Amino acid sequence: MMKKNFKKLKQFEANLEALNEHKDLFIRQMANELATIFFTEVKKRTPVGKGTFEVIGKIKRGKNKGKVKLKKISQGGSLRRSWYITKAIKHRNYYIASIVNPMEYAAYVENGHRQKVGRYVPILGKRLKANFVEGHHMMKLSAELVEQEGYDYVQQRFYEFLRRHLYG
After folding, report:
1. Rounded to an integer, what is the distance from CA 121 to the centroid of its chain?
2. Which member of 29, 109, 111, 141 lies 3.0 to 4.6 Å from 135 by CB, making a disulfide possible if both were Cys?
């Protein structure tokens, strides 16, 4: 009669059980990492405005005579600075992480907007010329990038996760 050693098989079974225990943690971590990549990309793609200005009169002399004189009130970039991210939470069988921009005009910058041609805008000191201002599509482009590169990223991390839990 031959003696059989099942020690390695029992070790493999224990590793599979540990793998199952850490599954949710891994998925949550991947959701958070993909959301962070998305957040970084969308923030990079968000345009920065010139700032807020106040009309303080008209220029009286020089080559710019008659043009509106402006005083800078605040720096631009409030749209870019307003982005924030939430941690992934489990909802039924999937995880949700949110990337949010609470600025009221964020959707108009993303998708574009109509405007009245010829309307004078005092803060700009000029009249509007275009009927439609094209959007910057910072979220759409960032989502496409994460969809394209996300699968390879998660797959690589998943193989590392398997190696770590199955083979010690």
Report:
1. 31
2. 111
Mean pLDDT of 98-119: 93
Neighbours of 146 (CB within 10 A): 19
What sign does the CA torsion over 106, 146, 40, 48 have? negative
Query: Can you point out the beta strands (E) in the chain?
Result: 52-58, 68-74, 84-85, 89-91, 94-96, 99-100, 112-114, 120-121, 126-127, 132-134
d(CA 127, CA 125): 7
pTM equals: 0.76
- Is the alpha carbon torsion for 57, 60, 64, 67 positive or negative? positive
Q: pLDDT of 76-88, one tens digit each?
A: 788 999 999 999 9
List beta partners, residue 85. 99
CA distance 34 to 103: 23
